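Appendix B. Raw example, untouched.
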Amino acid sequence: MKRFLHYTRQTVNEADIAAVVQVLRSDYLTTGPVVNAFENALASEVQADFTIACSSGTAALHLTALALGLGPGDKVIVPTVTFAATANGARFTGADVIFADVDPDTGLMRPSDMEAAIARSPTLPRAVYPVHLGGQPCDMTAINTIAGQWGMSVVEDAAHALGTAYNEEGVTARVGGCTQSDMTIFSFHPAKTVAMGEGGAVTTNDEGLAGRVREYRTHGIVRDNFKNGATDDPWYYEMQRLGFNYRVSDIHCALGLSQLSRLGASVRKREQLVLEYDTALSELAPVIRPTKRVPSDITGWHLYQVLIDFEAAGLSRAELINRLHENGIDTQVHYIPVHSQPYYEQSKTPPMPGAEAFYQRCLSLPLFAGMEEDDVLRVVENLKAALL
């Protein structure tokens, strides 16, 4: 019997298990040395000055909004094709979200979409949160240039894009290195290239932002730079902000650190699978085709998304999903545009034609490092049987 192919799946090996067991046998399960080791390794990987690990990608998004001082009356721009957490992080602070449209063939927010969102905002937005959907990078140079013209902060949502790098004036810039942003967030949910069970991180090159993210992560408590006067008392601390318990444990970071050591191999395997999909699917064009590619030196693929002309195929997306599932193949839709969710209907967002066109056609096929070429061919053969 053929194995069930999930649309994504974590890959855990014996080295990962041994790393977690080692922490379980150690003196520290949380706030210990493995958290620092993971932060240092991630900072080195993405070439950022500061990395702050936290409990989830959602926590990371909230922490960036807090560090920027967002609050009621502030506006932030978020592409509507993303997971709800991208918008929610700003809303947790009371800020309002101005949704931006996206390219109908990539799902990525374009510079023109950002400019249109700025024009629609009743007040000048404080920040923009570009999303590297599926692992493909947005045009960060153009987005950062526009943000600079308006005095806006830039926070990259790279939950899908660990390992992605793009060309920046002849130099390879790694997503997370923050060369074109103030901060970047990552997620280490099991669906991601590096899995920690749950976990996230913020990277930045700004020492002040890094300090605020750290404080908000741990209840707003500091153990130096006291406001109530200097003291040598070893137990003393001060709560200087209203913070949160967004810390991540050494257990999670042990798994993440072990997985991070294989990031390059995992990215290369996913790139290979993407090429195999592209080749195998070519005969199904134009009814089904991959999302349009954008320039990048390395794409840390998180999703393999295709665009399907369901009218030409003669069946609905739900029918296709169900047929594939019956044959042991899981698929997913990334994403229902966030502005259409009941909670966000109050934002009175105008029609988003790019996002609607992308949403109506998109489908994520199985993609994870544990797949082989035969798995790709099996998915494509089942698509062929269902669509032709």
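End of appendix B.
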